[in-house]
């Protein structure tokens, strides 16, 4: 599976950049090989390689296939992103679980995401994970959001904040009719008391994921898995 940035509309397409490198130098594709292409339209395309160069290849589109692997709802994880490998792990597993949007959250006790380079890097992880798990839509990585204004976002969605001392479990809060969900997860030091209070005042509901203190990515993925398990068909 290979990702093309430009929408696939023509009968032949060129595969360039990192995807060409993967196709030509990792998979060692040859003329006549069959590949699957996707372009974030939701569809995937059966294609055949018809030309190879050193840095690019050309494929002929054989068939457009409508294959949706999306959840029936929009699922947003807003989290203070961990660093290094843990960040990559969070992004990769969010893609696998069907998260539609990942919003880096700036909180009192976390730093801010270092702009464009970081976002490009995160998007690269999204593409790699989408190729692996066969999603045809890319999880969006939103602009960093800061508190308290983020607490006012999307009031029509079910908005849940992960809180180690909350009373309710995430599964208790999910309506049986699938509903768009936003989950906020705090930084290593946790949300401050003022941040929790502002969230609850804005209509967010706290939930607990067992009795242990989880790291950011574990909490985000446990919550995303609960939503996916409840709503994915
Ligand atoms: N001492 C911090 C606290 O009490 O919030 C621990 C922070 S924890 C490493 C990072 C974030 O993961 C928390 O802010 C919370 O949003 C979420 N989290 C961790 N364990 C949790 C649990 N058992 N239930 C719900 N959320 C949890």
TrEMBL record:
GO-annotated biological processes: rRNA base methylation
Q: Which superkingdom? A: Bacteria
Q: Give the molecular function GO annotations.
A: rRNA (uridine-N3-)-methyltransferase activity
Q: Where is the Ribosomal RNA small subunit methyltransferase E methyltransferase domain?
A: 70-227
Q: Which reaction does it catalyse?
A: uridine(1498) in 16S rRNA + S-adenosyl-L-methionine = N(3)-methyluridine(1498) in 16S rRNA + S-adenosyl-L-homocysteine + H(+)
Q: Which UniProt keywords apply?
A: Cytoplasm, Methyltransferase, rRNA processing, S-adenosyl-L-methionine, Transferase
Identify one Gene Ontology CC term for this UniProt entry.
cytoplasm
Instruction: Report domain Ribosomal RNA small subunit methyltransferase E PUA-like positions.
Output: 15-62
Subcellular location per UniProt equals:
Cytoplasm
EC no. given is 2.1.1.193
InterPro entries according to UniProt: Alpha/beta_knot_MTases, PUA-like_sf, RsmE, RsmE_MTase_dom, RsmE_PUA-like, tRNA_m1G_MTases_N
Q: Which family does it belong to?
A: Belongs to the RNA methyltransferase RsmE family.
Q: What does this protein do?
A: Specifically methylates the N3 position of the uracil ring of uridine 1498 (m3U1498) in 16S rRNA. Acts on the fully assembled 30S ribosomal subunit.
Name assigned to this protein: Ribosomal RNA small subunit methyltransferase E
Question: Which source organism?
Answer: Blastopirellula sediminis
